């Protein structure tokens, strides 16, 4: 850790340049010859990224940041707070500690938290930051978590793991076996040290793929912020062998939308019907869950088409997603498009529709934005339709 970064003048310079274009700053002469200029600029970049994602760190004096990429990859305080709501007990060990955001929130619920980090430089930074944050119930260990577990030889109420992908060679398709640590391979070993395991994965991990690799999964938490899925949290219990509960959580400014269901429990079907007065689009956490029939049946809504994942009702209900009032509905054809949408402004969404948003805009000269929301979709009769709506706040 470069302790020269804690110089009062350097810290003031970093604060004064939050949000400034780093490429322009890089052209300036280094005003702090005692420190590496690139390192100072990296602190500005990382702290800028932390402003909204990690407001506690941002507001605390003398915090040292790792690379901007590390900040981008770490949990936000919002998702860390949610994960902390899952655990309880006296002890938790984090096998992939990273920047320590998750652990800072676990430490609010757990008496003794242990942070393991294989990167010595990052571990040193985290220990320094915990002191600045006045967090006193976290112990930091540097090295391979497998060896640390063996050395400590303790039983923990929880093990927490955030495995990282070894490479991006497989593109958007990956398995937990492709990550470090290899959780499926070491699961028996982990259960020897704790009966409860919490695993964070990126949202692109397919639920069925994760379930095929893991054992004793009790709950999968799908966590979204402002309808963007940020992470999947897998809750494992050593003696559990029952059905898997899916919890969808969408954290937005003034509320938290939740919808839970039991995976593969019975045969749930949603009635199919033509558009009525109101239209509903599930939030991204529900979309990720695949619980399309479950959400429709629970809220007693009609679905427009088996594969459209849009729902409708005569009366307005409170729904975990976007709600709209349908102003007009017509078949997708040249005459109707020219009459209602050509050369206008609208927000466009496609669901189970053969054309893309980009092509629709180009073909009909529709500008983005405004107060009109258009859904291009397919109805129960397999007809391509357009719904012109206004959003209900």
Which spans have pLDDT < 50 for at least 5 consecutive residues?
none
CA-based gyration radius: 25 Å
- Roughly how many Å apart are the termini? 48 Å
| Side-by-side strand order of the widest sheet | 3-2-1-4-7-9-8-10-11
The percent of residues in helical segments reads 25-40%
Largest β-sheet summary: 9 strands, mixed
Total count of strands: 18
* Helix-and-strand structural type: alpha/beta
Query: How many DSSP H or I helices?
Result: 15
Average pLDDT over all residues: 94
| Proportion of residues in extended strands | 25-35%
Backbone shape:
globular
Description of the structure:
The protein is α/β, with parallel strands linked by helices and 393 residues long. Helix content is 31%, strand content 27%. The longest helix has 17 residues, at 37-53. The mean pLDDT is 94.
Descriptive tags:
single chain; about 400 residues; alpha/beta; 9-stranded mixed sheet; 7-stranded mixed sheet
Task: Note the topology.
Layout: H1 8-16, H2 22-25, H3 37-53, H4 55-59, H5 68-73, H6 77-84, E1 91-94, H7 101-106, E2 112-117, H8 120-132, E3 138-142, H9 145-152, E4 158-161, E5 164-165, E6 179-180, H10 183-191, E7 196-201, H11 207-213, E8 217-225, E9 228-237, E10 245-252, E11 255-262, E12 278-282, H12 284-289, H13 292-298, E13 302-303, E14 311-313, E15 321-331, H14 334-340, E16 347-350, H15 357-364, E17 372-378, E18 384-392
Parallel strand pairs: 1-2, 1-4, 2-3, 4-7, 8-10, 16-17
Antiparallel strand pairs: 5-6, 7-9, 8-9, 10-11, 12-14, 12-15, 13-14, 15-18, 17-18
